[in-house]
């Protein structure tokens, strides 16, 4: 029987199928950048239509495009810290987290976002040094472009960085380029630099303390379920109180002014109410659960979902104004033809920030979400709860002490704190070793062997490569954004002069 197979034709058909598959994969990879580009173009067109009668319309359109690009990058990098622990602990799926964060981030920005911002972000530069409109607009545009590019690069390498620090670096670099080193308020920069250390250490310490409490009073108890019925409502009440104070202090500044003592009273009241409400709920949820750690995780799932939503709302209310502040300053200066000490943020500018952050999160956020939630250290609902609670409490403490802190550094520092504490606790805790040695193995009549110290030392629970990458990114954010902004200033000032 003749051989009807045609090897050459088969090879050609295989090559065509491989090309089609590769083209399809490449096409899917270009969908997100394509949607982002459409969003940037739409924002530029909307700015042109809204500000068509204003002087320097072309500059405003360009600034709106850059502002939209900045907002996309903030969504891709900064917002992921709010939902990463909940996703990494499997308290909710990635898609659920993306939707919750996008909705609450936008709501926080549009409902409670700050409506007034200093034209020189956080008093970093002397306003008199950039008093002319051309110099000022060039400085703000350079700061916006440099910070957006730096955050984009950080997202690409998988490093969560502080948006505020990137903008601060951009404003500082442009100010130095425009008026020299004497224009910079170095005490303010010193306090910001101090926050690089304060934020992650404070966040990590608080998260580690709560994890130590959970391990001591719930996990390593003979009757875990009884211990959970007693302490989980208390922990949820503490979380509710912390978030109530956090939102009152930082998230609702536009709607109502609340001082620290009042916010703490609100937190105490909210915590007591929630504690009373959840006690019977936890009792019902824990009924019939097996006496093991896996059962405990179900009791922390819903608080994590709520914390992700509240953190996203507070971030939108508190940080979006910082992100679009340079854009608002450019629009205001171009419109008035002069530099003023305070500018109001127009609704369309706030919308660019709010929706840009949401789109950035949906299109590009999963990479940083996976980094924070899964790749630094393994998280379960109890550990993720400690991270979320630490974020709220650290902001309250820092606000009371007047310390500038970064929400990104707090959240990631809390993840580090949980991981490093577990390394220490696993190796050195007498309570844990006593508990483990009392547990029978599968045969039911022998105790588990305790790992020797050398073997335990090799079991690093925090990935050192990710740790070093993130720390390096934190250290270089301000100087890198400053250097890039200073170089861009000289280009932009010539273009708009």
UniProtKB/TrEMBL annotation:
The chain crosses the membrane at residues 30-51, 57-80, 92-114, 134-154, 166-184, 196-219, 231-249, 261-278, 299-317, 345-364, 384-403, 467-492. The keyword Transmembrane applies. The keyword Manganese does not apply. It is a multi-pass membrane protein. It holds the Pfam family PHO4. InterPro entries: Phos_transporter (IPR001204). It is found in: Membrane. Keywords: Membrane, Phosphate transport, Transmembrane, Transmembrane helix, Transport. It comes from the Bacteria. Its main location: membrane. Belongs to the inorganic phosphate transporter (PiT) (TC 2.A.20) family. This is Phosphate transporter. The lineage of its organism: Bacteria, Pseudomonadati, Pseudomonadota, Alphaproteobacteria, Hyphomicrobiales.
């Amino acid at each position: 029987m003749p051989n009807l197979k045609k090897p050459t034709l088969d090879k050609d058909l295989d090559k065509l199928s491989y090309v089609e598959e590769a083209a399809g994969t490449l096409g899917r990879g270009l969908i997100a950048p394509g949607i982002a580009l459409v969003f940037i173009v739409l924002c530029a067109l909307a700015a042109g239509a809204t500000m068509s009668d204003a002087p320097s319309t072309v500059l405003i359109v360009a600034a709106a495009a850059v502002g939209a690009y900045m907002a996309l990058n903030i969504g891709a990098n900064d917002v992921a810290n709010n939902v990463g622990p909940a996703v990494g602990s499997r308290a909710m799926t990635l898609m659920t987290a993306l939707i919750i964060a996008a909705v609450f981030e936008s709501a926080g920005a549009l409902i409670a976002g700050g409506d007034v911002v200093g034209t020189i972000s956080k008093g970093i530069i002397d306003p008199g040094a950039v008093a002319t409109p051309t110099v000022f607009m060039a400085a703000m545009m350079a700061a916006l472009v440099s910070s957006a590019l730096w955050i984009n690069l950080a997202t690409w390498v998988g490093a969560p960085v502080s948006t505020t620090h990137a903008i601060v670096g951009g404003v500082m670099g442009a100010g130095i380029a425009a008026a020299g080193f004497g224009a910079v308020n170095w005490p303010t920069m010193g306090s910001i630099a101090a926050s690089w250390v304060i934020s992650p250490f404070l966040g990590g310490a608080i998260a580690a303390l709560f994890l130590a409490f959970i391990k001591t009073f719930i996990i390593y108890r003979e009757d875990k379920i009884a211990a959970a019925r007693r302490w989980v409502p208390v922990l949820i009440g503490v979380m509710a109180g912390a978030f109530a104070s956090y939102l009152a202090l930082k998230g609702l500044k536009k709607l109502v002014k609340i001082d620290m003592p009042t916010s703490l009273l609100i937190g105490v009241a909210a915590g007591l109410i929630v504690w009373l409400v959840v006690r019977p709920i936890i009792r019902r949820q824990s009924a019939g659960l097996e006496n093991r750690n896996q059962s405990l995780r179900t009791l922390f799932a819903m608080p994590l979902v709520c914390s992700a939503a509240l953190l996203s709302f507070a971030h939108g209310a508190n940080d979006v104004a910082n992100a679009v502040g340079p854009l608002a300053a450019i629009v205001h200066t171009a419109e008035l033809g002069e530099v003023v000490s305070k500018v109001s943020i127009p609704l369309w500018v706030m919308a660019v920030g709010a929706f840009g952050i949401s789109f950035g999160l949906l299109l590009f956020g999963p990479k940083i979400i996976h980094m924070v939630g899964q790749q630094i250290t393994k998280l379960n609902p109890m550990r993720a709860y400690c991270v979320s609670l630490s974020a709220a409490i650290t902001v309250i403490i820092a606000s009371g002490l007047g310390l500038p802190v970064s929400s990104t550094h707090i959240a990631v520092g809390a993840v580090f704190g949980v991981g490093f504490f577990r390394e220490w606790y696993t190796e050195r805790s007498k309570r844990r070793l006593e508990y483990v040695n009392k547990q029978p193995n599968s045969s039911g009549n022998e105790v588990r062997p305790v790992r020797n110290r050398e073997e335990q030392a090799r079991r690093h629970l925090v990935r050192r490569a990710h740790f070093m990458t993130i720390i390096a990114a934190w250290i270089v954010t301000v100087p890198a954004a400053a250097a890039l902004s200073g170089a861009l200033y000289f280009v932009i000032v010539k273009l708009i002069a």
